[in-house]
Amino acid sequence: MNYDEREYVAAAVNYFWKGLAKPHTVNENAAKVIYEALSEVQSCTASIDLVPRPTYTASISYIVKEVAKIGKRIMSGDTSAYNMCRDRVAVNYRTFMEEALMGL
Length: 104
Description:
Blueprint: H1 3-16, H2 28-45, H3 60-75, H4 83-101
């Protein structure tokens, strides 16, 4: 993952948990967890613009690129998800994200 991707993935993580991730703490496991969390938000809000869903099993490079694009949109103010959905997903995925950021 390059620095820009790490920065955007961190922004996506921080969308749910303010200040939890810094670009240097983001790894591929964190990208996988946030991808799952964002997919849950999509299911809750039916927001296809926020998270595209592939019709095949996504590779890690696809996941990183898509999460980086989503993080970039979030940093620009595009957060088209219901707060109640984001909050529910944040509660459900927090432990998974903390473990991923610690490299577990």
